[in-house]
Description:
Layout: E1 2-5, E2 8-11, E3 33-37, E4 40-44, E5 57-63, E6 65-66, E7 74-79, E8 82-87, E9 92-98, E10 100-101, E11 109-113, E12 116-120, E13 126-132, E14 134-135, E15 143-148, E16 151-156, E17 161-167, E18 169-172, E19 177-182, E20 186-191, E21 204-209, E22 212-216, E23 222-226, E24 232-238
Antiparallel strand pairs: 1-2, 3-4, 4-5, 6-7, 7-8, 8-9, 10-11, 11-12, 12-13, 14-15, 15-16, 16-17, 18-19, 19-20, 21-22, 22-23, 23-24
Amino acid sequence: MIRPSVSLCIALILLPLNCSAAEIGSTEGFEPYLARRDGKWGYLQHAWGVPQKEWKTAIPFEYEWASTFNGLSSATVRKNGKYGLVDRQWRLIVPAEYDYAFPFQHGMAIVYRGGKYGAVDETGKLVIPLEYDDIRPFRDMGTATAAKGDKCGVLNRRGEAVVPFEHSFSLTNGMGICGGYVPKVGWKYVDHLGRPFARTTFKTIDYHSDGVTGVLREDGRWELIDWATGEALLPGDYKQLAY
């Protein structure tokens, strides 16, 4: 969920390289090993579960600072005071030209420069321009909450507004539900493609899976509905539901 704070919306979400990958045959299971040498940071070749008698350089020791991969597909590096991203194939995929670059999540990396946020795709192309006051990590259905001024919305990986920037709050989750809240009007919900729910007469949504959505009605009772038809699959006489 994302909501404004003074002038910024803050999200609360329901949170040339020397070597090639061919030298070790495959990068599957490969976790670049962060190290520091002669005052610079770089990465060593390292594959989990493979005995290593020697450690070769995977990513050159040329960075002022670098992060661990921590299981992600990319890591943040700093050079000449600017940030970019390297990947597990030992490539600099996002040039070090930003004030900060966040590792890729679900095919997109959020970047920050000049007080504004944008996002790049896995080719390093800036797909979402640097014009937002906040963008939170992309979810597995390819959507992210964002803020522009005191208005919030939801973006997809093409930079299109799935939920328009006209809301006080916005949300997206890992199961394709997106929504925005307008004071004195209430929540409006759509799926990750921007398609509205068949039924909107409920207070809030708890989860969604396989076309079934748990909703909290205005009377405080829970029920399960079919997302496409709005039909109640379980009657609204439950105080709580868990999936």
